[in-house]
Specification:
The protein is mostly helical and about 260 residues long. It has 3 domains: about 110 residues, 3-Layer(aba) Sandwich (Rossmann fold), CATH 3.40.50.300; about 70 residues, Orthogonal Bundle (Helicase, Ruva Protein, domain 3); about 60 residues, Orthogonal Bundle (Arc Repressor Mutant, subunit A). It is about 50% helix and about 5% strand. The protein has 13 helices and 5 strands. The strands form 2 sheets. A 3-stranded parallel beta sheet has the order 1-2-5, with no helix packed on it. A two-stranded antiparallel sheet has the order 3-4. Strand 3 and strand 4 form a beta hairpin. Helix 3 packs across helix 5 and helix 6 packs across helix 8. It is flat.
């Protein structure tokens, strides 16, 4: 089962997750089984978990810890066995500092973290993704692409992709619609911004690698203490929230550091 927490109005998320009984609120004209209950003995994928309302977070934490919940309008406790997979593009550590996300829920969710690098750091994936989207979108746009020129892939590799894979998909769809023939052609002009030379991209990636290595070194030396006068943030000359942001951007997680030390 899956639920996009950002795509549903905040007032309806609770009903979607936990379900409700008839008459629980004005619009509840019949009983509804929630996604958690439907996912019993299976998996529940919560996309954009950072958008879940703060007042619902304790109820979700209870499901993760106690494996139980009640539908809205019911006093009957239900038991469930659900594996929860969550995803977000938000900086949850920063949201914790701002009191917008519960730290206990974050640590309960963050058992096996998977950090996905931005597309600009995975340029070798672009040809595979382009072919995938061309095949996937063929039916939607009513057009078959027979050829993807090397010049098109070269342009795509030299673009920074601030919108990551979704931006790439949108660009491919636009190009398929606008190209008159079966050849997928994309130029610098189509991307609508300056395309960095290849040597510039290489230099930026190298700087990020150096920064990541230096932050990891300081974290190990401070035994993963971030705050305080002797913490990693102070030694790096950063405030705590800035360091958390850089760690997230560079794919640094405490569990990854711990596993490297063992």
């Amino acid at each position: 089962m899956k639920l996009n927490c950002a795509a549903i109005p905040s007032g309806l998320v609770e009903s979607e997750l936990f379900g409700h009984e008839r008459g629980a609120f004005t619009e509840a004209i019949s009983q509804k089984v929630g996604r958690i209950e439907l996912a019993d003995q299976g998996s529940l994928f919560l996309d954009e978990i950072g958008d879940i309302p703060l007042e619902l977070q304790p109820k979700l934490l209870r499901v993760l810890q106690e494996r139980e919940f009640e539908r809205l309008g019911s006093t009957r406790t239900k038991q469930v066995d659900v594996r929860v997979i969550a995803a977000t593009h938000r900086d949850l550590e920063g949201m914790i500092l701002e009191k917008r996300f519960r730290s206990d829920l974050y640590y309960r969710l963050n058992v096996v973290p998977i950090v996905i690098a931005p597309l600009r750091e995975r340029l070798e994936d672009i040809p595979l993704l382009v072919r995938h989207f061309v095949h996937q979108l063929a039916g939607k746009v009513g057009k078959t692409i027979d050829m993807i020129p090397p010049s098109t892939l070269d342009v795509l590799r030299h673009y920074p992709w601030p919108g990551n894979i979704r931006e790439l998909e949108n660009m491919i769809e636009r190009a398929m619609i606008l190209n008159p023939g079966p050849v997928l052609r994309i130029s610098h002009h189509d991307l609508g911004c300056r395309v960095a030379p290849a040597e510039d991209i290489a230099r930026v990636r190298t700087l990020e690698e150096v920064e990541r290595s230096h932050i990891l070194t300081i974290l190990k030396e401070t035994r993963w203490i971030v705050a305080g006068p002797g913490g990693a943030a102070a030694r790096l000359g950063l405030n705590r929230s800035t360091l958390y942001f850089r760690m997230k951007k560079l794919g640094i997680a405490r569990s990854l550091v711990a596993s490297c030390d063992r």
